[in-house]
Specification:
369 residues, alpha/beta, Rossmann fold, four-stranded parallel beta sheet, globular, binds ligand AN7
């Protein structure tokens, strides 16, 4: 047998702080271990002395952070003998559930809002062979139905109300501290169901208490006794945390976070309060502008929802809420290729076709230099 040091996914790496045993079969696609990229051009553009890092979760196997939670949720579902998983989804959870179910050899049912999920996510769920149930309703309706149907059918819910999801997702915080060699001052995330912000807070909290039997200390040798300020950004049309109560009929171009009834409501408020953080909102225009800025100035393509973290952070750096000298991590939750329609529609100059001749190509280039 070869004895290499191949990365075998986040459960293998973080098993000391995850609820698995020596006999657990890990359902993994090599998720996690995503790059933490320092922004080089945007800080200068905004004229502020800050270190901004993006955690590029779009580089997970199915293109979003959901894989971190899904590897754990499906691993435990299989360990417990489940033959089928089910979720409601704005898209990424369905893609991830479909892939990990395929890997495990079990069935996946996904409820998605008709016409409101990005093309790439739908393609993934279809290709992996999930049973796709489109509903004439939004994510919140789907989530309610999933909870009800799971009481009557032998299916395991793999939405983030499944506690193993947050366990898997907390590993992103461990990776960030390991990569930075310190705890960031601020951590900014887009917020939909608020599972991810809650999971990160759980991870940071474990690391700050290495005396825990959880063995968190193994991964936080560099971490001083500190946790970041947690900042959550929502889309203006889907901002229950700003309103202070659940909302009906959420609407935003960032379909991933088109959610009015967040499932991790209490956990996210606790993270905000305990970290002295805050929630804020961005208009769809601001979200798309941030997505474009990242692609044009840094070469990093994330999906619209993800860009809310950077768009919000830039605004709060400019207005001084996040002070100069800070180290800031923004989570880019999903890859830009997930939603090609929204990307193409916001590019003013659509590519034109010209003659396939040297003259025509020369003219086209000289024109632009
Ligand atoms: C790219 O896939 O809820 O606050 O059903 O896909 O943890 O919900 C997706 C959420 C941010 C919000 N960015 O994270 C689903 C789903 C992207 C996302 C979020 C989602 P949470």
């Amino acid at each position: 047998m070869p004895q290499g040091n191949r990365y075998k996914g986040l459960i293998d790496k973080f098993k000391a702080v995850l609820p698995v045993s020596d006999t657990t079969r890990f359902i993994s696609l090599g998720e996690g271990n995503t790059p933490l990229i320092k922004l080089e051009n945007i800080p200068a553009l905004i004229g502020k002395n800050v270190d901004i890092y993006v955690k590029y979760e779009g580089l997970n196997p199915t293109g979003s952070f959901k894989d971190r939670g899904m590897t754990m949720a499906v691993t435990k579902a299989v360990e417990e003998g489940s033959q089928a998983i089910i979720c409601a989804s704005t898209g990424n959870t369905s893609a991830s559930a479909a892939a990990y179910a395929a890997r495990a050899g079990i069935k996946a049912f996904v409820l998605i809002p008709e016409g409101k999920i990005a093309l790439g996510k739908l393609a993934q769920a279809m290709m992996h062979g999930a049973e796709i149930i489109q509903i004439k309703g939004n994510f919140d309706h789907g989530m309610q139905l999933v909870k009800e149907v799971a009481e009557h059918a032998p299916v395991t819910i793999v939405n983030s109300i499944n506690p193993y999801r947050l366990q898997g997702q907390k590993t992103a915080a461990y990776e960030i501290v390991e990569a930075l060699g310190q705890v960031p001052d601020y951590h900014c995330l887009p917020v939909g169901n608020a599972g991810n912000i809650s999971a990160h807070w759980m991870g940071y909290t474990e690391m700050a208490q290495p005396e825990n039997e959880s063995a968190a200390g193994n991964y936080s040798k560099l971490a001083v006794n500190k946790r970041p300020v947690m900042v959550g950004y929502q889309a203006a049309g889907a901002a229950p945390f700003l309103k202070g109560e659940m909302i009906d009929d959420p609407e935003t171009v960032a379909t991933a976070i088109r959610i009015g009834r967040p499932q991790s409501w209490d956990k996210a408020w606790a993270a905000q309060k305990e970290s002295a953080g805050w929630f804020d909102l961005l208009t769809d225009e601001e979200i798309l502008a941030a997505q474009k800025l990242l692609t044009e100035k840094e070469g990093i393509f994330c999906e619209p929802a993800s860009a809310a973290s950077v768009g919000g952070a830039i605004r709060d750096i400019k207005n001084g809420k996040i002070p100069e000298g800070s180290t800031i991590v923004c989570t880019l939750t999903g890859h830009g290729l997930k939603d090609p329609d929204t990307a193409i529609s916001q590019c003013v100059a659509q590519p034109q076709a010209i003659e396939a001749s040297l003259d025509a190509v020369k003219a086209a280039i000289l024109d632009k230099l």
